Amino acid sequence: MYDLNYHRATSIDDAVAKRAAASDGQFLAGGQTLLPTMKHHLAAPSDLIDLRGIADLSGVKVSDKRVTIGAMTTHAAVAGNAELAKACPALTVLAGGIGDPAVRHQGTIGGSIATNDPAADYPAGLLALGATIHTDKRAIAADEFFTGLFSTALEDGEIITSISFEAPAQCGYAKFPNPASRYAMTGVFAARGADGKVRVAVTGAGADGVFRHQGLEDALSADWSASAVDGVAVSADGLMSDIHCDAAYRANLIKTMARRAVAAA
Ligand SMILES: Cc1cc2nc3c(=O)[nH]c(=O)nc-3n(C[C@H](O)[C@H](O)[C@H](O)COP(=O)(O)OP(=O)(O)OC[C@H]3O[C@@H](n4cnc5c(N)ncnc54)[C@H](O)[C@@H]3O)c2cc1C
């Protein structure tokens, strides 16, 4: 490690002001991505602005069907929330399958989506749920938020404050985890709205990060059953090939995970 300035922010305004005053500052949430990145000398911020002291940023609220999750809510808190388990069980399943207990008790939903790792779980969940990402400046639809590999619509110094969405009528999530890290080699989240329309988002597979799959959405909107996935053509074009598996294998995983997600719903 190297010398840097550490700040503990007391409010959202304080965090934004401290970040603006730093020459090359970064917000610190659970540190599960940022600290390893710094240890490997892939990031060297001048200042860390720790968000963990801001109580307003944590917690899950479920009011009728409206769900709001504070950006600093840990994966373990999402996984263990009983009201959310009733309103949107697949999101608690998703959070409970992230990494290991240490990662789940430190890592946060805001940190996860700000990073937008192409194999992270939350981007698929929030994209399929048609969630809104709230920041200190504006509200951003998930469809516009995830812009590519490790990139988002966030501007420099913009802070995610919460995530909200309308709980769907039914939803399910299934992932094929990397046996070492538990990141998704492929994960599929399927959500069926009250109007019968289905949104399907895929993580871990796309060369440009998380994406929606039109063919699966059309088939499942017409027939919400695991067998409806059988007739959908999933192309390997645009999918990742890496040391874990090639694009054709991931194309097959998308169909298998989609069937499992619908069956779980
Ligand atoms: C061993 C291991 C296994 C893992 N397995 C999985 C897995 O299976 N699935 C999965 O999805 N993830 C996995 N992760 C990643 C984990 O979910 C992290 O929690 C997440 O990527 C980052 O969240 P964090 O709260 O730790 O953010 P940090 O590491 O603190 O921050 C990450 C980045 O986000 C920015 N940031 C943080 N909060 C905000 C905010 N509110 N507004 C704006 N910017 C912000 C920071 O400035 C930084 O640039 C794993 C991590 C590890 C170490």
Describe the fold and architecture.
The strands form four sheets. The protein has a five-stranded antiparallel β-sheet with strand order 4-5-10-6-7. It has three domains: 5-50, Uridine Diphospho-n-acetylenolpyruvylglucosamine Reductase, domain 2, CATH 3.30.43.10; 55-166, 2-Layer Sandwich (Uridine Diphospho-n-acetylenolpyruvylglucosamine Reductase, domain 3), CATH 3.30.465.10; 170-264, 2-Layer Sandwich (Enolase-like, domain 1), CATH 3.30.390.50. It is built from eleven helices and 14 strands. The chain has helices spanning 12-21, 34-39, 75-79, 82-87, 89-96, 101-106, 109-115, 122-128, 142-145, 214-222, 247-264, and strands at 5-8, 25-28, 47-50, 60-63, 66-70, 132-135, 139-141, 146-148, 151-152, 160-166, 170-177, 184-192, 198-203, 211-212. The chain is of the alpha+beta class and 265 residues long. Flavin-adenine dinucleotide binds at residues 26-34, 36, 51, 71, 98-99, 103, 107-108, 110-112, 114-115, 117, 120-122, 159-160, 181-183.
